From TrEMBL:
Domain of life the protein comes from: Bacteria
Domain SGNH hydrolase-type esterase: 31-192
One of the record's GO molecular function terms: phosphatidylcholine lysophospholipase activity
Organism: Thiohalorhabdus denitrificans
The protein's name in its UniProt record: Acyl-CoA thioesterase-1
Length: 226
């Protein structure tokens, strides 16, 4: 009887390793952004981040997407929130989509650059690859300021060597049929284009990290991808 009890105990300990709940969680992609990434003014499933989840699934990537974006947020707000998000989700990739509200509010561009640089460095220190999403302000802010604003992203990318999407609103901001009436936020069609702008850069990060655990893609094509 004693040997039987010992065998049961040893077998039970061995089974702990195959309990479904004990398996590792899928790698996370953390999106830290503002109202563009929260999908302001469109249905939840129409935002580019929601569309990203669908595309990853259709392409066989195991990653889960965590949207830590906050409407109206600035680079200083994102920097303040980032440590907790990194600790909570331990992301493999961090996508930073911030700065638009800094520009719209006339905040110092030097501070914006410092905040973005600090976010990149903290994400990397946590073991994540980083994708920086840049954008341009509406032309009514004047050519000199809009160019200096766009240059912030270029300089941060050069300083840190981070992967950069220079203008996520390329093919969106200049198209009234892809923007909401406020002229600032994209509509559903605009969000599809944003994902198409982001996807090649994100895919290169994911492939660079290796395709371990990638599932065979489903037969359905991803929406909007060329």
């Amino acid at each position: 009887m004693r040997w039987l009890l010992s065998w049961i105990l040893v077998s039970g300990i061995g089974l702990l390793g195959i309990i479904p709940g004990a398996s590792a969680a899928p790698p996370a992609i953390l999106v830290v952004g503002d109202s563009i990434s929260t999908g302001y003014g469109v249905a939840v499933e129409e935002g580019w981040v929601a569309k990203l989840r669908t595309r990853l699934e259709s392409r066989g990537y195991p990653h889960r997407v965590v949207n830590a974006s906050v409407s109206g947020d600035t680079t200083s707000g994102g920097l303040a929130r980032l440590p907790d998000a990194l600790a909570a989700h331990e992301p493999a990739v961090v996508i930073i989509e911030l700065g638009g509200n800094d520009g719209l509010r006339g905040q110092p561009l030097s501070a914006m650059a410092d905040n973005l640089t600090a976010m990149v460095e903290r994400a990397r220190a946590a073991g994540a690859r980083v994708l920086l999403l840049g954008l341009r302000l509406p032309p009514n802010y004047g050519p000199a300021y809009t160019e200096r604003f766009a240059d912030v992203y270029r300089k941060v990318a050069e300083r840190t060597g981070v992967e950069l999407v220079p203008q996520i609103l390329d093919g969106v901001g200049e198209r009234r049929d892809r923007m909401q009436e406020d002229g600032i936020h994209p509509n559903a069609a605009g969000h599809s284009r944003i994902l198409d702008n982001v996807w090649p850069h994100l895919r290169s990060l994911l492939e660079g990290a290796g395709a371990a655990g990638r599932r065979p893609p489903s037969p359905a094509p991803a929406e909007g991808e060329p």
